[in-house]
Amino acid sequence: MKHPVLSLHATRMAVLALALGSLAGCESLNDMFASDRVNYKDTASAPALAVPQDLSSVPTDQKYIAPPATVTLGGAAQRTVTSAGNATLGVPNAQDPLGMHIERDGDRRWLVIDGRSPDDVWPQLQEFWTDNGFTLTTDSPSTGIMSTDWAENRANIPDDWFRRTIGRVVDFAYSSGTRDKFRTLVTRGADGQTDISITHSAMEEVLTGQDKTASKWVERPRDPALEAAFLDKVMQKFGLTDAQAKQLLTDARPSSSAAKVVAGTDGTTLDLPEAFDTAWLRVGLALDRTNFTVDNRDREKGIYYVRYADSMQELKGDGLLGKLFYNPKKAAKDQGPEIMISVRSSGNSTQVAVLNPNGQVDTSSDAQRIVTALHAQLN
């Protein structure tokens, strides 16, 4: 009796593949970033995460404290009505009449909020991910890192006639065979701005064996269109209309400088011909799009603390048995030692290097491979 069920699953996966293939040919942002591509709200969520006190407390570092003039009695940042009639979280100016804009580096995009600190936008982002059906596994305003748990995009399940009729009764039994998670980096930018980037990670369950009676999870490439769809939704959360958000995505401003590998006797580094603020953001995005997870970051020291990320280990925590027996601390330890990535100003450019435990440039072959991976991402 297994074969008909598995055949149905395989058929659904084929339909999904055709649907995604058709999307690949779309040239319109209105098609690629359509809101109906995203539906995580119907996913059965895990129990609420108990955030440690030291992570949930409001940071006292001055750079994260919003100016008193822009804070209301309830603590939420005041919104400004734009000439277009929007009550926007950003502060409008001549260059950004909506108080925000999108910048891009290749297929990577991030949102720039004018006149706001990370502390202003953090509660709004917490609400955003919760309202969209996600559980936060990392919620650290002091480091500017926010990560979701793995979740299923129910919009990827084909809405055929059977599911629209009889299937609605047992809709929970349907699965797209995919899982997604998102990492949000909130960075203090130049001139009182805040940069917000969203990075997508994905896994897919594929059938294995001659009879297709078993399955395994494999990594899928990140989806830039899905990242843009969530940036679209964040902008709407911050006060824009859907049409305005899509227009800002279309009008994304290029922000890119080629990184150059510098090989010396004291190790291999990268040279970015740009200011520290821009380089710091771009290196964070590049790390997020490699097989590394940012555990922590210290902007004042210019150091990212990262580990090799094993998505398979993380998915072992999915499901009832996984939640009972999965040990995230042990899994993090199994992923290898923590690695320090240094980002520091050097004249008119910025130097990026892998550091050893003594704080010196690492000359090992592993460090060189990391520099090579970052170079590929930054170009």
TrEMBL record:
InterPro entries documented for this protein: BamC_C (IPR042268), NlpB/DapX (IPR010653)
What Pfam families is this protein classified in?
Lipoprotein_18
- List UniProt keywords, sorted A-Z: Signal
Specify whether Signal is a keyword of the entry.
yes
Signal keyword on record: yes
Signal sequence range = 1-24
State what protein this is by name.
Answer: Outer membrane protein assembly factor BamC
Q: What is the phylogenetic placement of the source species in the record?
A: Bacteria, Pseudomonadati, Pseudomonadota, Betaproteobacteria, Burkholderiales
